[in-house]
């Protein structure tokens, strides 16, 4: 999952491409490159960050046409040679690509036999050689690109330029996102609006199989069979400022700190205090249809999946419908039995995660009814679903998801309230949940004020070789997400377990070197959780308890106390301190907090 950018217009492309790549770096950051067309192709590419690339792009890199790329390596280790763009042997064609070409080896062998000289180990390079082979005869670059793509098996978001056609860029999409930016006498294309909102907020999303030709004075789009397609521009809600750190040291801390506002935005206009229900205008279901579902199946990846587990509990508690969550790829490949009276809910912050998108497409092929809970407006998963809920949490730039995780859980509370109130959830319970939801932003503010205490605890535990996270029922998905956050940004090994499962194995790991973070809400399982703390302490384990009250020092070394809300909504608040704990542990360990190693923000490959 890489980031690609393209520009054609009166300005010099290089600075625009570099700034765009900077804004897309959360998509992949192991190598980068740009090429501009100016009496031939001029290219620079390096192993490293976009800043390293900017350092080697000379000011004289003139020309109003160019493409750029920031990489998350899949085929060929990060290196100057494997970085994109890739040129054809005659240096006429340049290609940047986001995705995976599954039949690259087979095509490469044929092209090498036909005299092509490959410089890199990448799958992408086959495209530049394939296009170069047809561009001479072809009437247009677009025709040559289409012919090449017909031979490709796999996913792609690509941008292509031809040294002999200095006025146009061809882009195409199949599985990986491409958005066009419509400017004044200039055109942009990118993997994400983040790279172009500085210049325009008028955008067009390409669908799978679509191809577009961009020229300074406009664009045209075509379906796979070359039929022209009509596109309605969308206006992006967010401006470039939303993609800045806003004075925070890291995007992650900014996004954690934004949560009182982002949760308020997710709730805005969706609570009805007269009937104590939730209004979710985007579901595209009337009450009769909403009542017809006998089961809810939630799918997503990583943190989206964990917020889905909180969602499943909320739906079972408030709507009394059987519900569960499953990793999207597991769901997709186990050939699930798709039932007409099951409501499927796909969760994705980016709306581009390939495993989730492919699972939604599989469900649609089997006639499933799929709702999306998505943050990125106009994204592929949002467009593929039958209806859904947008989070309105704003752009999430840091690779580790925080505000989107919290807003997803809030969106599930709204969905559960909606499903419940069209069934047997009483107006009194509806009121209780509505009021609880309205208290969340203020209570999150209270928890953020605990940052100094949590920072100190993070420093205390950061050098642990490994940490255990435990919770029961509502606390378990919170523990899973807490372990996920610590792992992905601090690289400290962490495991999450249902507290009840400890004595069935993991308790063997417990000792002074393995501290435990225990999620202990004041609910009907409080005593059981306190017993578990006793079992851990009895084996010399250190305990950091996150709950609604302090615990006896015999049971916990440290306690983080968060305000109480409604029992069903407490998991949303209990997750916040774990975000801060992971953040400060990563800072204490000197990690690259916003761009953790080996990861990327939007996983657009399988
Ligand atoms: C979370 O911090 C990670 N970035 C990752 O697990 C993420 O949640 C997962 O890749 C799903 O992404 P999505 O919500 O954009 O689909």
Automatic annotation (TrEMBL):
InterPro entries: GATase_2_dom, GFAT, GFAT_N, GlmS/AgaS_SIS, GlmS/FrlB_SIS, Ntn_hydrolases_N, SIS_dom, SIS_dom_sf. It catalyses: D-fructose 6-phosphate + L-glutamine = D-glucosamine 6-phosphate + L-glutamate. Homodimer. The active site is at residues 2, 601. GO terms for cellular component: cytosol. Its EC number is 2.6.1.16. Residues 285-425, 457-596 form the SIS domain. It comes from the Bacteria. One of its GO terms (molecular function) is glutamine-fructose-6-phosphate transaminase (isomerizing) activity. GO terms for biological process: amino sugar biosynthetic process; carbohydrate metabolic process; fructose 6-phosphate metabolic process; protein N-linked glycosylation; UDP-N-acetylglucosamine metabolic process. The keyword Cytoplasm applies. It is found in: Cytoplasm. Catalyzes the first step in hexosamine metabolism, converting fructose-6P into glucosamine-6P using glutamine as a nitrogen source. Residues 2-217 form the Glutamine amidotransferase type-2 domain. NCBIfam families: glmS (TIGR01135), PRK00331.1 (NF001484). Its main location: cytoplasm. Signal peptide: none annotated. Keywords: Aminotransferase, Cytoplasm, Glutamine amidotransferase, Repeat, Transferase. This is Glutamine--fructose-6-phosphate aminotransferase [isomerizing]. PANTHER family: GLUCOSAMINE--FRUCTOSE-6-PHOSPHATE AMINOTRANSFERASE, ISOMERIZING (PTHR10937), GLUTAMINE--FRUCTOSE-6-PHOSPHATE TRANSAMINASE (ISOMERIZING) (PTHR10937:SF0).
């Amino acid at each position: 999952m890489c980031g690609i950018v393209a520009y054609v217009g009166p300005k010099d492309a290089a600075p625009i491409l570099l700034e765009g790549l900077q804004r897309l770096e959360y998509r992949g950051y192991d190598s980068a490159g740009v090429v501009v067309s100016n009496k031939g192709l001029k290219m620079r590419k390096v192993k490293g960050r976009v800043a390293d690339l900017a350092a080697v792009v000379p000011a004289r890199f003139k020309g109003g046409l160019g493409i750029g790329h920031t990489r998350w390596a899949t085929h060929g280790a990060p290196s100057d040679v494997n970085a994109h763009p890739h040129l054809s042997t005659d240096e006429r064609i340049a290609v940047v690509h986001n995705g995976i070409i599954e039949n690259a080896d087979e095509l490469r062998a044929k092209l090498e036999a036909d005299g092509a000289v490959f410089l890199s180990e990448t799958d992408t390079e086959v495209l530049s050689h394939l296009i170069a082979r047809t561009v001479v005869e072809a009437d247009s670059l677009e025709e040559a690109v289409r012919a090449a793509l017909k031979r490709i098996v796999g996913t792609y978001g690509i941008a292509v330029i031809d040294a002999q056609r200095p006025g146009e860029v061809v882009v195409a999409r199949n599985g990986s996102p491409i958005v066009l930016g419509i400017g004044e006498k200039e055109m942009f294309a990118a993997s994400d609006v983040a790279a172009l909102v500085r210049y325009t907020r008028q955008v067009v999303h390409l669908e799978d199989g679509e191809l577009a030709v961009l020229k300074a004075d406009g664009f045209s789009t075509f379906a796979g069979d070359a039929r022209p397609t009509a596109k309605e521009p969308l206006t992006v809600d967010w401006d470039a400022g939303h993609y800045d750190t806003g004075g925070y040291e890291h995007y992650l801390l900014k996004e954690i700190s934004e949560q009182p506002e982002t949760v308020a935005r997710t709730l805005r206009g969706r609570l009805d205090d007269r009937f104590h229900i939730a209004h979710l205008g985007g579901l595209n279901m009337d009450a009769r249809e909403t009542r017809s579902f006998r089961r809810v199946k939630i799918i997503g990846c990583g943190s989206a999946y964990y917020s889905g587990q909180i969602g499943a509990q909320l739906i079972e508690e408030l709507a009394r419908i059987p519900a569960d969550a499953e990793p999207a790829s597991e769901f997709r490949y186990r050939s699930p039995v798709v039932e007409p009276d099951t409501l499927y809910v796909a969760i994705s912050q980016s709306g581009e995660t390939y495993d989730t998108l492919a699972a939604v497409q599989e469900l649609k092929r089997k006639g499933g009814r799929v709702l999306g809970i998505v943050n990125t407006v106009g994204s592929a998963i949002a467009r593929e679903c039958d209806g859904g809920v947008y989070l309105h949490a704003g752009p999430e730039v840091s690779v580790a998801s925080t505000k989107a995780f919290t807003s997803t859980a809030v969106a599930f509370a709204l969905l559960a309230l909606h499903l419940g109130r069209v069934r047997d959830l009483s107006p009194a319970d509806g009121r209780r949940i509505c009021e609880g939801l309205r208290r969340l932003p203020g209570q999150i503010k209270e928890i953020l004020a605990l940052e100094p205490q949590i920072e100190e605890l993070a420093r205390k535990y950061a050098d642990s070789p490994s940490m255990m996270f435990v919770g029961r029922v509502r606390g378990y998905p919170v523990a899973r997400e807490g372990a996920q956050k610590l792992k992905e940004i601090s690289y400290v090994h962490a495991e999450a377990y249902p507290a009840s499962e400890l004595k069935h194995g993991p308790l063997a790991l417990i000792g002074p070197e393995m501290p435990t973070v225990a999620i202990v809400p004041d609910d009907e399982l409080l005593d059981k959780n306190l017993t578990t703390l006793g079992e851990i302490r009895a084996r010399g384990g250190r305990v950091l308890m996150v709950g609604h009250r302090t615990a006896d020092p015999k049971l916990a070394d440290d306690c983080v106390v968060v305000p109480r809300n409604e029992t069903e909504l407490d998991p949303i608040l209990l997750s916040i301190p774990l975000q801060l704990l992971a953040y400060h542990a990563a800072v204490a360990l000197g990690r690259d907090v916003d761009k953790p190693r080996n990861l990327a923000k939007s996983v657009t490959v399988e």
